[in-house]
Amino acid sequence: MVYDLIEYIVFSIIYSEIEKRGKYSIQTYSASALQNMFKTSLESNTNIFKCTNEELAILMDKIMNNLKESQKSKVLEIYRLLENSKIKNKLFKRALEEYSMCIENKISLMPYESLNYPEKLRNIKDSPFLLYYIGNFPVEKDLEKSIAIVGSRDSVKLSEDISYNTAFELSKSKIWNISGLALGIDSFGHLGSIDSEGYTGAVLGQGLLDPIFPKENMELSEKILKMGGFLVSELPPSTKIDGIFLILRDRLQSALTDSVFVVQTGKKGGTLNTVNYAVNQSKTVYVFEPTEILDGFEGNLILLNKLEIPEKFKVSKKNIEKIKSVKNVLELKKEVGLVCFKVQITMDEYFC
Does this model's pTM top 0.90? Predict the structure, then answer.
């Protein structure tokens, strides 16, 4: 490997640095610039932490030649960071501390160069430098027919039933449901998998040693692990929860899975971020289409072109055109190769 585990932790620390801009946080250093430096260094078999000044200069020339002017300053900012020996030493000191936390708490590490690193993640624009995980992370073959069951935190009984029952049946067929441990739809999906065969995992927007968010799902996270599932994060263990990390983890949910099933969504919310990531990653996005107009499903109908697209809607018309309607699980099972199953739901129909 070009980089060792401590150096991979340093990359993830730089990636996880954030600063406040008004109400919201942004990443201090450009993720795409950091990724560019990292992947170019791998192609050149050059370790940017250990190479000579001459080797680093050659590498920087190669990086700069492939960049637009607007991107060059972002790369130079990271270069200056690594050039500063005092800051560099602090980064490595923290990396060693984070590594010790991993050892003490049985957190496994899977770097980008590992043979077990998921190809699905290698293929996205901003691949995680390092995966931190607890539990049984699925092998590549197990991810081939995985799905992300996602939706609103403010879920209704109908969507909760659909989420739970779909996950329950998928898990019986050994299909992983990889979601985000959020309240509402995510939670019912995880529970459905757990009550079946346990094929579920959660991607977190925090370090694995930060208290579980939301706190209401602490017990659920323990059940996931007890049933042979996993918790995974791209962030160092001590990293605190933040809104920007919740958005960034959405790209990993969709990237790890073969498809995304949106059960319920309003006009706004994190589910729409996942939809965008999924479409841009060429994943199949299914959206449940209710047979009647229901409160809380406005986003579903907009995504399915049943309602006019409002201004500032997070998903573009171009992306909406790539989304598939799912009125029943019979349609969904044809896509993922399942045997049809019958589940009674509150609309006096079969979600089958």
Answer: yes
